[in-house]
Amino acid sequence: MPIQVKPAAAVLGAEIQGADLTRPLDAATIGQIRAAFYQYEVIYFRGQMLTDEDHIRFSAHFGELRKLKIGTQPHETHPEIFVISNIKKDGKHIGSYDAGIFWHTDGAYLPNPHAVSALRALQVPVVDGRTLGDTNFASVSAAYEALPQAMKKRLVGLKAVQSILHRLSQTVESGIKKDYSAAVKADPEAIHPVVRVHPVNQRKCLYVTEGYTSRILGIPEDESRDLIRELTAHCVKPEFTYLHHWQQHDLVVWDDCSTQHKATFDYPAHAPRLMHRTTVVSKQ
Q1: How many CB atoms lie within 10 A of CB 210?
Q2: How far apart are CA 153 and CA 156, in angstroms?
Q3: Distance CA 42, CA 122 (A)
Q4: Taking the mean position of all CA atoms in its chain, how far away is CA 256?
Q5: For 183-206, what is the mean pLDDT?
Q6: pTM for the whole structure
Q7: Residue from 247, 243, 245 nearest 49 by CA
Q8: In angstroms, rounded to a whole number, what is the distance separating the alpha carbons of residues 119 and 124?
Q9: Residue 16 predicted with pLDDT over 50
């Protein structure tokens, strides 16, 4: 049976039905899923009782997986798995507990940034029968298309510094103490075009976020600061966003070139949240 693609009531996002990701998928099904992904930028699967091995196998259909080295968060036995959680063991968080506190795109500070991320919900926070911990996604390809022609012309050729140091400074200001020393030492920042051309579908995408963009090169500092503020506010306007309401055993896959995302953090610390993420390396 062919899969079913059910678009969300938004400019991006679609649910994929009819695919059992616990089993190897044939080439035709993978082709359908990939086509839906590059059309809708965020796709999700409900009720997938995946193992980490299933998760890794499916993610690899989008490209080479990256083994992340931020802090102590990678999975103990599968370095391709990045753990996101507010759960503590022996007084320490078992995963990244502040992931998504700012609008961002994963890996922007790397010379070869992330291309695709796939996040799986093992535990979702529930309070008084309500599931919390939703995630906002924004289409930066739709945001670019909606820019006035004068702004599009202004952005031609501009490049920006994407910096984990910028991310770290914001985290500290928010009162969160976290060890980014490994990432800072390896790849503290990278320079990327303000408007990236998607390597697969050739869409133009705004690549400026509040989480990582510290400076736009070639213009005065005050103009850079104002332009970053203007573009980041534009990218996350409601007409460009999709809010994903998590359910346990969801798998959500998003395009790191054409989207940004931000967690809601609307749940208390005593409500456990546990997510596993895989990451596909970008093709330059």
Answers
A1: 20
A2: 5
A3: 19
A4: 6
A5: 87
A6: 0.91
A7: 247
A8: 12
A9: yes
